[in-house]
Design a protein that fits this description.
By secondary structure, the chain is mainly β. The protein has one helix and eleven strands; from the N terminus they run βββββββββαββ.
Length: 132
């Protein structure tokens, strides 16, 4: 059972990246997938969530309008399209999966760490570096 995040890299400010979160050993059909990031010396931030059951999504304010979360059930993969990247968004980006979860708690004031540690599976992160 594994989640693997990929797609990070070095880009210039204003450019785009598409991150992928691929699951192996289990299917994502009944899961909620979340994307998080952690910059050096900063707290973890929850960016976006998608429910694979009903397609409900959530975006943090920092992601709204520039990031898009999507899924390909056939590929058992969730994506995070990130446009207009900024230098301050340099971070390690992680994905995580919770079986039977809900994106509702992302907008309910639940702390990011509570959400993160309620997940069932976590992928190794992928580094995103944005140069100015």
């Amino acid at each position: 059972v594994q989640l693997q995040a990929s797609g990070g890299g070095l880009v210039q400010a204003g450019e785009s990246l598409r991150l992928s979160c691929a699951a192996s050993g289990f299917t994502l059909d009944d899961y909620v997938i979340g994307w998080f990031r952690q910059a050096p010396g900063k707290e973890r931030e929850g960016l976006s969530c998608i429910s694979m059951r009903d397609g409900v999504t959530y975006y943090a304010d920092s992601a709204k309008g520039r990031f898009t979360i999507s899924s390909n059930n056939a590929k058992n993969t969730v994506y995070l399209q990130m446009n207009g990247l900024k230098p301050e968004e340099l971070a390690v980006y992680h994905c995580a999966a919770e079986r039977g979860g809900s994106c509702n708690k992302w907008s309910s004031g639940t702390s990011t760490d509570s959400i993160y540690y309620s997940m069932d599976y976590w992928g190794k992160g992928t580094q995103v570096t944005v140069s100015s």
